[in-house]
Amino acid sequence: MSHSNAGPAPLNPFVREYDLAKARMHRASVREAQAHQVETLKKLKAWFDRPSPPEGRGGLVVLPTGGGKTFTAVRFLCEWPLSEGYKVLWLAHSHHLLEQALETFGPMGAIDRPVEVAMVREPKETLRVRVVSGMPGHAKLASVSAEDDVLIASLQTISGGFRDDHAALFAFVEAAGDKLFVVFDEAHHAPAPTYASFVEALRERIKGLRVLGLTATPIYENKLRKGWLGRLFPQGILHQVTAQSLMAAQILAKPIIEECKTHVAPEVDERKLERWLGTYSDIPEDIVAWLAENQARNDVIVDTYVKNREKYGKTLIFADRWTQCDYLRTALLRHGVRADVVYSHVDAKLATVDARNRRTADDNTKAIRAFKEGKLDVLVNVRMLTEGTDVPDVQSVFLTRQTTSRVLMTQMVGRALRGPKFGGTEKAYVVSFIDDWRGLINWAEFRLDEGPTSDTKAPSRERVPLHLVSIDLLRKLAAQMYQPAHAQPVTFLETVPVGWYHVRFDTQVDADGDIEQVERLVLVYEAEQEKLAALVEGLAKRDLKAFVDPLVTFEATRATIEALCAEAGLATKDRMGGDLTHDVFQLVRHVAQSLGDLPTFFPFGERWHHDLDALARIAFERNIGRREIPGFVRNEFDRVDRYWRAIYGTLEAFRDQFELRSRRLENDETTGGQPSAHGASVSEPTERYPLPEPSEDVKLAVKQRDGWTCLSCGSTDKKWLQVDHIQSVYHGGGNDLANLQTLCKRCNSDKGVSEENFRRNRTPLHGPHPDFGARIEPSDKDRGDRDAWARCVRATLNHYYRCAAVSDVTIGAKGARFYEWQVTLAPSNDPRFVEKHLPGFLARIRTKRRDYQGADALVIEGSDAEGTPRSVRVSASGQR
Fold first, then answer.
1. 555 CB-contact burial (10 Å; exposed 0-12 / middle 13-18 / buried 19+)
2. Which of 143, 322, 593, 738 might form a disulfide with 345, Cβ 3.0–4.6 angstroms?
3. pTM listed for this prediction
């Protein structure tokens, strides 16, 4: 007879039963909710108490990352639904979010400190919480019990259970009766239509069902009113708080994003790279291991901290392997930095499993405690993400590698976002270490989402995706470098995208079954723009049910995608941006999951200013000699209104491409029978060589002198401010401070090469001037904005008078000045000079404003050269 010494199975840490009587002993000292959380709780309580409307009960709470979204929801659930006998079904896409929710209810083990479950009111005596997903270690769906109070589960597991009529799941639902409360974490994209269907089925089954959505991403009303978001959350946004307001209240720290290049190129087989890029998973484990164990790369991480330790202060370093943790700790200690590590590595030297596990837990606990107590400067860890390991006064986080998972990125960065009110810091440094990857990889970027609560539309513009344009462009141009000189290359602009579609869809991102919303930018090129636009437009009318499921694969739908491309007449193989079918697959998934909502196309407005062929021709036609070419190229590369530096990275790479284009141009001229510019007889150039731009120090001094304000229109938007030559370089102007002034990009462009000195407020004109122009107008979205019109009126008149003639523009919010706009000029600027242009100017204003009232008349007051007061008035009716 054999005997087993296996013993009982270990307890599952993801199934917890809390003794509420013991928990309530610490209730008086539970965490105090901040003002914005108190307001959120009030709104939730009012919503919870209202009778259920016919369309069902569902609402959204929007709190930014670091604002305590999970804490606020758990506090509300404990104080009200759970105290009143409800069961809770908490749904999220990723195992990180599931575990974070569990830890927020309370830690495992003896309750010796305040925990949220203490807020559950009597007479309830125990609270059982279970985490269920396909993740190893989590409980399985078959283990779900009707006795469970809170079921924290992955969307895919629960939706699958409902689809399969899983007995254990339905026992839990039946036990809830009419008291089931559903929470959706990351509700801005969860659930996709596949997951929404089971919630609608639940509503049919449970008339008292409550559904609460949590998100850190601002929800725009037009998106909320249509599709599944509006159906799941019919009461809309219950409460929304902006990141900026929490920074102002010192609840959130202001994130400062920094990137540090490692100059390490990961060693990845080309075919393996292509296979990986065809998925949506994070970096493959073998590559992660290679990066983690690269000593030179780890030395860059250590040096970055050591050289900036005063700035970065208390720092969390997120590593990927226990060996990397140990290396970084040893190196930091060698530099006098107080450092320790936290990881779950099992020390095989200890004799028993219990001893090995106990040692790991003990060491981690000691390290975390020392870090919290300020005895350590740096804590190196492997994804220490739970609420129980939160350290409020972290000043910086180091992300030792890039990730494609936005959930993972957000949770890591969130460790440093606690502001002074939470015992944190005013600024939070987020230092990301960037490797030299080949190929277009959509890395997750941290965005502290911000959005007005009353907007009806999402933004229609977004920043240029230079990282994608750069990689794609350089890859194509590198191939051209090795073409024979007589080969016919494409023009440079053909290699630059005309714009991009921004797509979003839910997909499985790893073997654990985690679902995340991924965002991709589909670059569009000139040759395919019209056909691709027609294909996208037609998607709204097609049956795309096969593409709704987040688990759908490209291979399973390849035939359908290829047929779509063929029908649209699109070439898929020899395409400028690579195989088009993968891009179309992403476009289709976006439309399918958004119930016909088409992705937005963003044009690359600066494309025409980034034509290297045109730049090479300028140098060719100006007969710029070989000695002058380096200076010419450097001046162009350093231009602040160009993206050359972001696209090429280095001056050398930019110069190589310029020289390639120049050689092509010279070859074309020679073979076409035209004389080479460098072999022609000496002649005078038709234009003056451009002088070097002012140095960055000089530009900074000018902007500071001018108060960081456009001296023409009055704009203070720093990102558009430029330094302008009063007398243009074309007319011989120099870089001395007296000849430089601050203008916004728009006013600078409108000024051109004319001499207009906005540092003076007295016009050089001696009488009326025929050139009025009125070229500056607000954009369509700002055509009803008074401040925008005040800037445009100021700029238009200042350009006319060739100086800062306007001292004030009054456009009232109501009353007389709402209908009659008034402009006051500085002394010695005669309003009669501009009088004959005013009827046309007023007509343009009224045409642009269209549906808005106001601007029935325009009054301009000033004085002539002798100081005599002068005034002119024009009205829409023609009266003066």
1. exposed
2. 322
3. 0.57
